[in-house]
Amino acid sequence: MSSRAQHLVRRGGRRLRRGALGLLTALAGAAALGSAEARTVRIVQAQTLELRRLDDQEIVIIGGGEGNPVELRVDDDVVRATRVEYNRTRRTLTLVGAAMYRTASDGQTLTGEDLVVDLGQEQLTGEDVIISDADLEIRGGQVERVPGQLRATQGYFTPCAKCGRTPNDYAFRAERLIVYPGDRLVAYRAQLLLADFPVLYLPVVVLPLNDPERQPRLVVGNGAPDGLSIEADLPFSVGTSTLGTTLLRYYENRDPSIGAGVSLRSYAPLPFVDRINLYTLALPRPFAADGTQRVGYDLDLDLTARGRVPLTLAVRDLDYSLNVVRRDIGRSETDPERGVTRVNFGAQVEYPLFSAQLNYVDRYGPEPTTALTTPLRQPELVVDPKPVTLGGLSADFRVSAGRYTGQSNPLSRSATSQGINISTTRLEETHAISFTASPWRNADLSLRNTFTGRYYGTGARTVNLEAGGTITQRFNETNTFGVSYAYIRIEGTSPFAFDAVAGRRLSAPLTLLLNTVPVRDTTFSATYTRDLILPPDSSGQLPATFRLGVNRPPVSLTYNLAYHFGTGELESTNFNVTLGDPNSGRVTVTPAAPARPATPTGPAVPARPETATRSSRWPAPNLTLTANGSYTRTGGYDPFTVRATVTGDIRTNNFSVYATHDVATPRLRAVGFEASAATTFDTVLNPVGVTARENLDLLTSRLTGSYALTWRGDYTLSTAHDLLLDQPETARESGTVTFSVGTAAGRATNWQLTYGGPYDFRRQGWTRPGVTGTLRATRPGQSLAVAAVLNTPGLDQPRTEFSRADLNAAWQFGSRAALSGRVVYTRTRSGTFPDDVATDTLVLDPVRVGVALGNGPRPGAYLTASLRQTVVWQGGERVGPWNFTPVIGLTIDRCCWALQAEIDLSVRRYRLAIGLPGSTAYPLFNYGEDGLSLPLLP
Fold first, then answer.
1. Can you give the three-state secondary structure of 699-712, one letter per residue?
2. How many Cα atoms within 13 Å fall on the side-chain side of residue 621?
3. Strand partners, 657
4. Which residues, other chains included, contact 543 with Cβ-Cβ below 8 Å and sequence gap of 6+?
């Protein structure tokens, strides 16, 4: 304690008042509110601080101002009170008056009068305390909080506190309560209250407080062939580190009838074990598909364990994991995985000079009848020394050894003779050695050697060797020449399919590479590879490749060529050339210059105004010409395309024409044009954009195109066509022609009106035209989509009538009502005009309406109705009876239970069900054409 604080104590605890929080915190530190041996207390908000010594006890009194309570932090816990008395000697906090204590570990809030917190024992006591969290509210006459428990006498608790409804649906009043935060609540000598009215006395009540997956579950059923069935999941806990659920199953007609299991997870239950997860269930075997009773159990087992073992010389602890899995439930009798238990164990450790792994993968049960695509390792040891680096030399080694079982390699006769799978030992050695150096100026040398060798207990072996080097010489900064050589040897046959090598290979490729810039803005590269082992004309030899690039405005050229010197054949070639100035839009500004009078050394110079000029090396800056073509030995010539594009002062304004020539025929293949433009005189008030595209395929006489006019980016007028100019004699249609007007796509409110359809170019008219209109509108909570098709008279369509109408809408009326649905009407005709018959179909799929009932912020009930209906008229008369068959539902939604009632008039069925936490809905009764049934009763 500081000398000033000691002086205040000697003078009988004279009060010290400060308004600044920083000074209070400093004085609290002087009074030693925090201690390294126990929990730390930190002042967040206060107005007064007083130090006293009473009966050899040091007391710090912390007071709040008017309307501003004291706020403290006890580690991460939050304390608020009108006044706090901190006894430094006993390590206790007394919260005087209305106080609140919120625990950070379990998220609980304790409110009451005159709470006492023991910092040394981590306990809290008080009277008339309310304990609340997200799921539970507890009131107790006397409450005591110790680590891991909350104890209350004369208590009242309810899980309905989070709903905010009054009165609570159900609650309990008990003489004594014990709460294990995050796990369970135990109440002794309790009364069950429904709407705060006592209805039942219970000697003990256990209420789980777990996660949803750990809530108790009870499912009762009754049906063939199992008869009465009961499935129960009961949570439990062992200490503070193990949580589990007991699984109980009962089926009346199975043999045996009772099954059991457990699902648990445990954190650090044993030394060197970090986590254990276990799920196991022995389930009575279900009846076969033909109704035959099967005797015995189906077993599911899933065990996972992880942990660490400290080792003295290791860089880090040894990590290990174990997984044991067996899945019988749901498998057929012929499933090859039935009765199979798989084990997967792995451990790894790292030392300063090497790391090591031990893997064990195995299966227990019936012998496998199918190929094991994933090999078994029984076991496998891997040793991986750390890479060694010495100057430019680097070496990395890895060795593994073990016994394996896997699918036999079909290419190995000795392996396939032993069956579909084979078991044997294997030793694998892998290394990679590299060396880099600079032997002389502007030269780089790299050497490499990689090797993988596998040696098997059957006497077989496989080798994968690659050795080689590369030397690169740079000259004149932009030019390089390189020589690369490699020796590749792959041989041997593995008895296993999982590590089989892809055939035998012996190769020694020598590669020459040149990259150069012969003149400015021009690049040239050449690559030639020759395998010194293969014959020169072998198909395995690679062709030499050459590439030329020119990028000097107005010319841009790319040319590629591949030539096979061994066979003397051209493999492929392609080119792309562009004539144009990419910088034609760039403007050069010449500043203004004032006039100068004549001088003895020179004449007068007139004034020069500022000028802006466009400079270009291309005589037509707004014109761009492109041409491209290609050839391959296997595919022949590709079409040769020439395109000319004229660009306006604005890049968006352009017009281009193109022609495609078929070199192989030879004949002109296709011609066309593309154009786009936008107004520039007023881009704000009246922007107009135009796009056009037209293509004529001369081989098929097919004409395709589209034109569009856009105004202010909102409205579009367009037309499109796809026509065969030379249609077959038997064809009655040449293609389609349409005209459309509407808004631009992507708007919240979008509409479109289209006229057109199939068109006969020979008869100069539409055969089956129609008008199609669509409207889509969306707003928050509202959406509407309407589409309709009106058939109009044409060459092959004599009538005007609606053929389809589609309405899809959803409407939210505040937070209490909603309407949604889809209505579709279609008309089709059968027969020959004028004796054809119309068939009209109206489909409601479905129409729904929902209304929330209740006055609170959260509705207490929901009334819904849905209608799915299909009505057909033929020749103006309805086909079949008119059945109005809606489905009406009522849901009473509470925080802890829900009641659902349904009336389905289509099948005349009435159902009632109740839903409880942690389970599905329990059907209470069904009443329909088969009479009344109570599913929960045998």
1. CCCEEEEEEEEEEC
2. 14
3. 644, 673
4. 562, 563, 564, 565, 571
**DSSP conformational letter for 479:** E
Predicted confidence band of residue 323 (pLDDT cuts 50, 70, 90)? very high
pLDDT-based confidence at 377, cuts 50/70/90? very high
Distance CA 47, CA 197 (A): 46
Span 310-325, mean pLDDT?
Answer: 94
Tell me the C-alpha distance between 483 and 511, whole Å.
6
Residue 408, Cβ density class (10 Å: 0-12 exposed, 13-18 middle, ≥19 buried): buried
Taking CA 909 as the corner, what is the angle to CA 907 and CA 910, rounded to the nearest 5 degrees? 160
pLDDT at residue 240 in the model = 63
Burial (CB count <10 Å: 0-12, 13-18, 19+), residue 584: buried
Average pLDDT, the chain: 85
CB atoms within 10 A of CB 936: 12
Q: Is 661 helix (H, G, I), strand (E, B) or coil?
A: strand
Rg (CA), the chain: 44
Separation of alpha carbons 472 and 479, rounded Å: 10
Q: What is the pLDDT of residues 66-124, one digit of tens each?
A: 777 888 888 888 888 888 888 887 888 888 878 888 887 767 788 887 788 877 767 77
Number of other residues whose CB lies within 10 A of the CB of residue 760: 20
Beta bridge partners of 721: 705, 737
pTM of the model as a whole: 0.65
Helices (H), 537-688: none
Hey, what amino acid is at 632? T
Whole-angstrom distance, CA of residue 133 vs CA of residue 560: 74
- Contact (Cβ atoms closer than 8 angstroms) between residue 737 and residue 758: no
> Which pair of tokens denotes residue 136?
């539970």
Residue 6 is classified by DSSP as H
In whole angstroms, what is the distance from residue 8 CA to residue 50 CA?
A: 9
Whether the CA torsion 422, 425, 427, 428 is positive or negative: it is positive
| pLDDT tens-place string over residues 711-731 | 888 899 999 999 998 888 888
How far, in Å, CA of 917 to CA of 217, rounded? 8
Distance of alpha carbon 566 from the chain centroid: 53
Q: How far apart are the first and last CA of the chain?
A: 77
Instruction: Please report, as a single letter, which amino acid is at residue 129.
Output: V
pLDDT tens for residues 436-483?
Answer: 999 999 999 999 999 999 999 999 999 999 999 999 999 888 899 999
User: 610-632 pLDDT, tens per residue?
Assistant: 655 555 667 778 889 999 999 99
C-alpha triplet 558, 561, 566: angle, nearest 5°: 165
Q: DSSP label at 301? A: E
Give CA–CA dist 157/186, Å, rounded: 11
| Two structure tokens written together for 813 | 């009326």
Helices (H), ranges, 387-536:
413-416
Q: How far apart, in whole angstroms, are the C-alpha atoms of residue 428 and residue 441?
A: 41
Q: At what angle do helices 3-10 and 21-30 cross, to 10 degrees?
A: 80
pLDDT of residue 737: 96
Give the helix/strand (H/E) hosting 205: strand 197-208
Asked if residue 15 has pLDDT above 50, the reply is no
Residue 843: how many CB atoms within 10 A of its CB?
A: 16
Torsion sign over Cα 415, 419, 420, 424: negative
**What does 830-883 look like in DSSP terms, one character per residue?**
ESSTTS-EEEEEEEEEEEEEEEEE-SSSS-SEEEEEEEEEEEEEETTEEES---
What average pLDDT score do residues 2-31 get? Answer: 35
- C-alpha to C-alpha distances, 770 to 738, 740, 802, 831, nearest whole angstrom: 9, 12, 9, 20
- Please provide residue 101's backbone torsions phi and psi, each rounded to the nearest 5 degrees: -130, 115
Partners of 512 in the β-ladder: 483, 528
Neighbours of 568 (CB within 10 A): 8
CA–CA dist 36, 844 (Å, integer) = 73
